[in-house]
Q: What sequence folds into this?
């Protein structure tokens, strides 16, 4: 079968090969024919080494497809079922799951250390234990979440990561208060989803911040009340909040510099929500006096900060009701053979989300 492979960390291009085999099928596993997958910035971060990932590997973790085979002991799925790939499944028995913090379950991360694929040259890993830039994947049954028949594969793929992360940051982690002021720094697919979540919660002012003009224009269509470049954020803080700072600021870039900017533009007593996934050696510096004196809450948001399965269901319900726009997030479509074009679109900022059709 075909899959896009990164041979070494640091390479900026993928090679589409046709000698890949999905491995690991057996009890408790399912085989999925991938139909659509989104390109998430986390894939680029894994390719560059910002996020830890053994190589060679198949990127992709935001996918959807249909079940082609189920292993022994899998009773809730059958061949033909439409599913979204969940890269962070909950085991249900660890301390985090028992506390109701299923987004902190480490079971999914453990999968990342086991090869998902094989080719004549040796083992190949799947990013985040999945690897959806492939025609087929074998994953734990818990990674395959059934979706209704009326949800297209491309929409389902987005729900698998970016939309769930951005919406959840606003709905679950921040629990944005109606009438509040919000700034979102970084307006790709995740940031736009955070904007939609803030709009759903009734935020009065939503300022989108991004260096790319097309993304700023898109943010206005998805619910932002104002869109500015990073250089214009200070002026927006003054005009929107009278210089006090925003009630909520979402950092959706994953860098200490933008997190520091987000902190500085959060009002005293306000909330900074860290959504972007950054590097382990990138440190955010705050002094002890400002932490005490400003009483700003700093809330990291992992995969939307809530129960993933419930978040999927909620997203489908909101999409069906026309309360959120998911189709509009897909600005580009490419076949798997042109995956490097999708990478260029992400790096340049021209795409909100590129759907890779497989």
A:
């Amino acid at each position: 079968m075909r899959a896009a492979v990164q041979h070494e960390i640091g390479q900026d291009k993928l090679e589409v090969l046709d000698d890949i085999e999905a491995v690991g099928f057996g009890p408790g596993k399912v085989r999925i024919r991938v139909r659509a997958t989104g390109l998430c910035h986390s894939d680029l971060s894994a390719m560059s080494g910002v996020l830890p990932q053994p190589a060679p590997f198949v990127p992709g973790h935001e996918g959807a497809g249909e079940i082609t085979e189920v292993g022994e002991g899998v009773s809730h799925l059958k061949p033909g079922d439409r599913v979204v790939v969940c890269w962070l499944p909950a085991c249900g028995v660890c301390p985090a799951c028992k506390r109701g913090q299923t987004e902190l379950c480490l079971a999914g991360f453990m999968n990342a250390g086991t090869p998902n694929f094989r080719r004549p040259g040796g083992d190949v890993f799947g990013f985040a234990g999945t690897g959806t830039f492939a025609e087929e994947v074998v994953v734990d049954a818990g990674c395959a979440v059934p979706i209704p028949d009326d949800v297209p594969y491309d929409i389902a793929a987005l729900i698998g990561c970016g939309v769930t992360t951005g919406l959840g940051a606003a709905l679950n982690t921040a629990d944005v208060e109606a009438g509040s002021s919000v700034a979102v720094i970084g307006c790709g697919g995740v940031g736009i989803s955070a904007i939609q979540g803030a709009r759903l919660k009734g935020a009065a002012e939503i300022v989108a911040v991004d260096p790319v003009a097309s993304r700023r224009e898109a943010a206005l269509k998805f619910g932002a009340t104002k869109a500015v470049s990073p250089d214009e954020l200070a002026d927006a803080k003054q005009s929107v909040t009278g210089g006090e700072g925003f009630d909520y600021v979402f950092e959706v870039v994953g860098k200490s510099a933008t997190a520091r900017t987000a902190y500085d533009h959060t009002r005293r007593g306000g909330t900074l929500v860290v959504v972007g996934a950054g590097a382990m050696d990138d440190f955010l510096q705050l002094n002890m006096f400002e932490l005490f004196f400003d009483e700003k809450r700093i809330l990291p948001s992992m995969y939307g900060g809530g129960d993933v399965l419930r978040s999927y269901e909620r997203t489908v319900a909101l999409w069906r009701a026309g309360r959120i726009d998911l189709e509009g997030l897909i600005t580009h479509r490419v076949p798997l053979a042109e995956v490097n074009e999708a990478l260029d679109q992400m790096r340049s900022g021209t795409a909100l989300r590129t759907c890779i059709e497989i």
Q: What stands out?
A: The longest helix spans residues 162-174. The longest strand covers residues 29-38. The mean pLDDT is 96. The two ends are 11 Å apart (CA to CA).
